[in-house]
Amino acid sequence: MQHGNHAVGMAGVSPMLVFSELPSLILPGVMFRGNTLPVLDLLIKGGPVMVPLFLLSIFTLATALERLWFWLRLLSQEDRIVHDVLEAAQYNLEDARMMAERSENFAIGRFLAAPLKLRQPSPDTFRLALESAADKEFVKMRKGDKFLETVVAIAPLLGLLGTVTGLIVTFNNLDIGGGGAGEGATLAAGGIGEALITTAAGMVVAILALAVFRIFVSLQSRQMDYFSEVGSELELIYRQTWYQPETTQPETTQADNLLGPGKKVNQVSSASEPLSSASA
Fold it and tell me: I want to staple 151 with a disulfide (CB 3.0 to 4.6 A). Which of 80, 209, 257, 258 is the partner?
């Protein structure tokens, strides 16, 4: 009897215990309803499928922290950078360019510096430089999105795979009609616990990745609108204050260009010679 109890404690786990201690997947060692279940125990009891799920959760957390640091730095500084550059652009483009270049470690600084580095560009070239720089920065802002989308798709499937493998273990350990019913039930309970743990872990990892992904997508959408607004203001300042259209030259015909300077005058003078001789 003691051997059976020991087996239940190590190999089997009741469904209520699993669901009551799911928070330890994220916060190891947290007390919940008077019980603790370390992550290592969950990994062991969840079976081999828990290994890729655990790795996906670690990479998801690392991606979330890296992107969070990126967005915190950008959002905390971009308003100041935009104000300084636009204010300087109204009086001196060179000062505005230097301010933007000093902030090129931020996306907004690289975006504003791109057109200001050009030498007397036309308005179309100025706008093209803004659009090109914005596209490059938006690609950098989407870093990690593909990975998070992959986690959202794969984690539930891994949880389902763990459910299937846990049920396989359960049915393999069922010895209906045979002896040792207590030991078989204990092993079957372990298979059910494996199935429940992997299912819950897959859902937790997928939900976490989806929440992080949606937050970053909303931030990217906000930045696209912000970049468009700031770029329009900078282009307007350039058009109104600094752009000087080139003076148009008088049009010349293609024949004049082929004849070269002085040819047309000679033709006129030669055409007037018969008139002079006739009058004489």
Answer: 209
